[in-house]
Amino acid sequence: MNFSNLLTTWYLQNKRDLPWRKTTNPYHIWLSEIMLQQTRVAQGLPYYLSFTKAFPTVFDLANAHEEEVLKLWQGLGYYSRARNLHNTAKYVASELNGIFPDNYKSLLSLKGVGEYTAAAIASFSYNEIAPVVDGNVYRVLSRYFGIETDISSPKAKKEFTALASELIDKQQPAAFNQAIMEFGALQCVPKNPNCDICPLNTSCWALANKKVALLPVKEKKTKVTHRYFNYLLVIDPQQKTIVHKRTQKGIWHNLYEFPVIETEKLESTKTISELIQVQFPETDKMIQLDSETVLHKLSHQHLHIHFWKIHTKINHKNGLSYNELVNLPVPIVIHNFIERNSF
């Protein structure tokens, strides 16, 4: 039995019961694939169910307010995905009459849809012979065939896609794509895979050469920058606070946050207090709410966060009550803070 047949047989016996596998509706397939970019299935599944309930069709999503979309997305991270999702929904609804493109090449024209996502939608919805190549696929192919190409190098995508194109089952492209991704997610996992029960263990190059832990090769290291945020929960005599929308490009675009003082390094309480006094001279009293730094890790940034509660003598213009605040889309680190600190 060849590689493709072994994978598909394994998949049919071991696949997870996931709602997007029970449909060929391109809207639902598209939603699931966008949500699962950089996201584990266990984390993405509740969001998928929430979105399909709130927005049963692409028209419903297109007609939603961006803040409603961002609020539902809250906690899933990589918020540009949500903004692209919303913009693409509006485009499909208004320009394509709600009908998604039915082939790989046309799907690539949609905002937020790259080669992997286009291949997934094309194969799962339309059974097009379009191989998917993601992290799971890199891992399975590099180990089984002994490919030591650095997967972060420019030539890797072309090399692995060419191999996947040769291997894909031309009669069942959707099943093959699902199988190889599921195999990487459940069996050929990044660390300590159980090779004893692997159906490919008699012909796996990495296992035979004791290189399972060394493949795939990825030499490029992600450079992480450190940023230091001091968020200010400023409470006025009416028990209202203020937030602003992050309109600048970068992290958390179009989400709301408290006034923030960003410093180049971790500063002393005295220094932060002085900076707060400059920004809010009418401060009545000030409390540092977290003695320990809240470390929030993003893919390329580590945010070192402190929260400060400030009471001011002057009422805020356009101040928000706690109940109004909790309805806004905010970064998950601020959401968690709000959950812990009502006012």
Automatic annotation (TrEMBL):
Its cofactor is [4Fe-4S] cluster. Residues 35-186 form the HhH-GPD domain. GO terms for biological process: base-excision repair; mismatch repair. InterPro entries: A/G_AdeGlyc_MutY, DNA_glycosylase, HhH-GPD_domain, HhH_base_excis_C, HhH_motif, MIG/MutY, MutY_C, NUDIX_hydrolase-like_dom_sf. It is an enzyme of class 3 (hydrolase). Pfam families: HHH, HhH-GPD, NUDIX_4. It catalyses: Hydrolyzes free adenine bases from 7,8-dihydro-8-oxoguanine:adenine mismatched double-stranded DNA, leaving an apurinic site. Keywords: 4Fe-4S, DNA damage, DNA repair, Glycosidase, Hydrolase, Iron, Iron-sulfur, Metal-binding. Its EC number is 3.2.2.31. It comes from the Bacteria. The keyword Secreted does not apply. The keyword Glycoprotein does not apply. CDD domains: ENDO3c, NUDIX_DNA_Glycosylase_C-MutY. GO terms for molecular function: 4 iron, 4 sulfur cluster binding; 8-oxo-7,8-dihydroguanine DNA N-glycosylase activity; adenine/guanine mispair binding; metal ion binding; oxidized purine DNA binding; purine-specific mismatch base pair DNA N-glycosylase activity. Binds 1 [4Fe-4S] cluster. Belongs to the Nth/MutY family. Adenine glycosylase active on G-A mispairs. MutY also corrects error-prone DNA synthesis past GO lesions which are due to the oxidatively damaged form of guanine: 7,8-dihydro-8-oxoguanine (8-oxo-dGTP). This is Adenine DNA glycosylase. It comes from Flavobacterium amnicola.
